[in-house]
Specification:
Elements (H helix, E strand, L loop, with lengths): L1 H20 L4 H31 L4 E2 L5 H5 L6 H9 L8 H4 L5 H7 L3 E2 L3
Parallel strand pairs: 1-2
C-alpha cells in the first residue's frame, strides 16, 4: 500500500511538471518557434560574417619590411619579439626565425602561414 501511494505521488508529480512545461496553446507554440527560428537565423548570419572577416583579414607580413606594429599583430608575437625579429633582418626564408633562435618552432608554427620574405 505504501509503495502504491509513493508511486502514485511520483506519477502525479511528473504529470504536473510536464503540464507546467507544455505550451498553453498552439499559438504560443508557433510564436516561440518563430522567435527561436529568428534567433537562429540572426546568429547563423553573424557567425558566417565573422568567419568571412577572419579569413579575409589574414594578410601576409613581410619579415624584411614590416613595421613593429604589423609584426606585433601576429598571433603570439609581443613587442619584444617584434623588436628581436627586426634586429635579425634580413631574412632569406621565413624559417630563419627558428634557425636563428628568434622564435621557437611552436611560435613559428602559429604564424608561418601569415609571414613572407621578399628580397
Amino acid at each position: 500500500m505504501r509503495f502504491r501511494f509513493g508511486l502514485l505521488a511520483l506519477l502525479s508529480s511528473i504529470l504536473a511538471a510536464c503540464a507546467a512545461c507544455a505550451p498553453q496553446s498552439p499559438d504560443q507554440l508557433r510564436e516561440k518557434t518563430a522567435e527561436a527560428t529568428a534567433n537562429l537565423k540572426r546568429n547563423t548570419k553573424a557567425v558566417a560574417e565573422g568567419v568571412k572577416e577572419g579569413l579575409s583579414s589574414k594578410k601576409s607580413v613581410d619579415l624584411n619590411k614590416a613595421s613593429k606594429e604589423d609584426i606585433s599583430s601576429l598571433p603570439g608575437i609581443s613587442a619584444q619579439k617584434a623588436d628581436r625579429i627586426i634586429a635579425e633582418r634580413p631574412y632569406a626564408t621565413t624559417h630563419q626565425l627558428v634557425t636563428r633562435h628568434v622564435l621557437s618552432e611552436e611560435e613559428y608554427t602559429q604564424i608561418q602561414d601569415r609571414v613572407v620574405v621578399t628580397h
